[in-house]
Backbone:
């Protein structure tokens, strides 16, 4: 079965190059994107949602025009193994999820996803073979509609200078930039 | 000047393919990544931070092994035009920012970044020529160290079934999955 413009093995090679290793989540994610895309009308402009930060954003970025940096892909930290593609204007589209109820027939996928075994006891070759054999059989699709509030493209508005550190940031975020509000990942300020 | 394995024009073509259009932010971001990477010791494993969701994540994903889906790139919604690359183990690295004080010599970049003119009055060709001519002259680098709390890789822990909708999600997120807590982008529940 094709995944975008690739067959299974070619997609695996593309995943290895972009993602760094052949993660089961990105391969399954490839089938998820493909399944969602096939439900959309030809030629429409669509946006994407990933309900997890793990793996699925990379499948979406490899297989659709939607990336994090162009804003057509929104990534939520829900930890849910599901994604949606939807018409950019109407918000109508399809959500595809891993169908955990179907995993009894795929014990290696089940052990990986539900972490039934520690990683060192899982068998990656058998897991990969199950994923290849299953294709879209692991998945479940349903129509969705995005809430209108999420369809409005928000610009960043006025850019201002942080009075504390001098950095430029969207004024809407507050009187200080977010790192100066204490949200940054750096030790001792930003620099 | 080279950007990763590409020269300027080849990188522009890669950006067009991945990002969908030749966004000034991704091209400048390419020079930012390149500048940060040149400060790192050869052969180390490094992670990345983008301080904005716009454009810079795509430059990082195109030019480094760090992607959103593999977790080596963390994207913050600070709206700040800066990124960092740092040693995955020590947290030591380099932050590169757009040096707004240097933009007087680059009026088209300045008009674009500070939104001094509405988009329809900006001149994209002249903007692109300024970016090409400036290369790293628009940028400012400084050493950073990531807070140890951000170096710890957090697994998602136990996966549980949402008692309301049946979706599987990390138990640490609460008694219900995040969409059932009201955080989802969909109308009328998830499906």
Residues:
């Amino acid at each position: 079965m094709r995944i975008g413009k690739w067959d299974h093995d070619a997609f695996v090679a593309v995943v290895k190059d972009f993602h760094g290793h052949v993660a089961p989540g990105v391969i399954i994610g490839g089938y998820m994107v493909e399944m969602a895309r096939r439900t959309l009308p030809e030629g429409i402009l669509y946006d994407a949602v990933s309900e997890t930060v793990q793996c699925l954003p990379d499948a979406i970025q490899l297989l659709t025009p939607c990336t994090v940096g162009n804003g057509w892909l929104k990534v939520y930290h829900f930890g849910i193994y599901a994604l949606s593609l939807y018409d950019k204007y109407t918000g109508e589209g399809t959500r595809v999820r891993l169908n955990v109820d179907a995993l009894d027939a795929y014990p290696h996928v089940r052990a990986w996803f539900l972490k039934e075994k520690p990683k060192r006891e899982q068998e990656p070759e058998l897991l990969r073979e199950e994923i290849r054999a299953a294709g879209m059989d692991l998945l479940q699709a349903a129509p969705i509609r995005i809430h209108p509030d999420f369809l409005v493209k928000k610009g960043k508005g006025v850019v201002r200078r942080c009075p504390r550190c001098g950095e430029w940031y969207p004024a809407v975020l507050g009187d200080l930039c977010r790192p100066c509000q204490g949200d940054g990942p750096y030790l001792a300020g930003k620099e």
Notes: The domain at 155-190 of chain B is CATH 3.30.60.80 (Wheat Germ Agglutinin (Isolectin 2); domain 1). Residues 50 and 75 of chain B are 5 Å apart (CA to CA). The mean pLDDT of chain B is 94. Chain B has two domains: 8-150, 155-190.
